[in-house]
Amino acid sequence: MKSQNEQRAGLLYGIGAYGMWGLVPLFWPLLKPSGAMEILAHRMVWSLAIVAVALLVMKQWGWVRELVRQPRKLGLISLAATVITVNWGVYIWAVNLGHVVEASLGYFINPLVTIAMGVLLLKERLRPAQWAAVGIGFGAVLVLAIGYGRPPWISLTLAFSFATYGLVKKKVNIGGLESLAAETAIQFLPALGFLLWLGANGSSTFGFHGAGHAALLAATGVVTAAPLVCFGAAAIRVPLSTLGLLQYLAPVFQFLLGILYFHEAMPAERWAGFALVWLALTCLTWDALRTARRNKAQAVRLAADAALMTAQPGTAPVPEATATAPAPAAQPDRTA
Asked: E strand or H helix at 205, and its extent?
């Protein structure tokens, strides 16, 4: 019973996390007339403040001492901070300029980019269905480039920056809250310096458009940290395969907001491109679920063989085929 309750709670946490990430396009336009760079700087500064308070309450500071003693990890976290800065900045800029649908595409194709990077950088081997998904995804980008009259560079920038971020985070291997604290600590001084410079030359909007606007800028820290906390709670309660399916909630919500709320245009060629992306993701999801079931069944058979050998020492186990490697897991942290 406790396990079922834990999984149910984890599912709700996961829906909450990806739901918040999916609805965040509604938040950034509220911060106008602040520009994307000023919003980004406030997000960095206030995120560190929120995360620092959370770590103080939970008394989780031991990791700082260990991290400082590892220059390689510090370098990787600096790289992660750089690429997520690009990701955040482009996303805020895209949403506030009316490119919500194109931004959502970036997170739809992100799993395909992650797989491609695994092949190119980590020399991973793909199954046929994964190759098919990557090929269909490449075709989708070509169709969308024709539809937009240019490459969908917003989508590609978001997808590649977030895939790079996920790859670096995998190598750093520290908790989500701790990682965000380290990354925003690196971002803090440049962001604060930029905000002070805006204030000095009279370009800052903080405090000049009412207390409500200032409070919304400060709330960027909560908007960043809250879904991450929910994601962390979900990650320890539900399987990665479930999280991998839930991750599509965010771009689906963003896509629907772009069409139904922001009324962005969707000519036929864009529908065709998105349809190809969704086909590629269907292939990828089907392959991942099939592989997970196959590996689970094989694990059960191996456990049964081991039990049989324990009961009858002279009995040899039935040979099993080598397990197929699982599909690349979903990215651990969504940070749009």
From this structure: none
* Residue 189 to residue 186: CA distance in whole angstroms: 7
**pTM score, two decimals?**
0.82
- Rg of the chain over Cα atoms, rounded to whole angstroms, equals 22
Distance separating alpha carbons of residues 324 and 326, to the nearest angstrom:
6
CB-CB contact of 96 with 214 (8 Å): no
| Cα 147 from Cα 233, distance rounded (Å) | 40
332 DSSP 8-state letter:
S
The mean pLDDT value for 229-233 works out to 81
Tokens of 171: 């190598």
Count of alpha carbons within 13 angstroms of residue 329, beta-carbon side = 13
Residue partners of 298: CB distance under 8 A and separation at least 6: 320, 321, 323
3-state secondary structure of 72: helix
And the tokens for 62? Answer: 């031991």
Q: Return the closest-CA partner of residue 261 out of 45, 24, 65.
A: 24
Tens-place pLDDT, residues 142-158: 888 888 888 899 999 99
- Residue 321: per-residue pLDDT: 44
- Spell out the alpha helix ranges (H) of the chain: 2-23, 36-58, 62-68, 71-96, 100-122, 128-148, 153-172, 176-200, 210-218, 220-235, 240-246, 249-256, 268-311
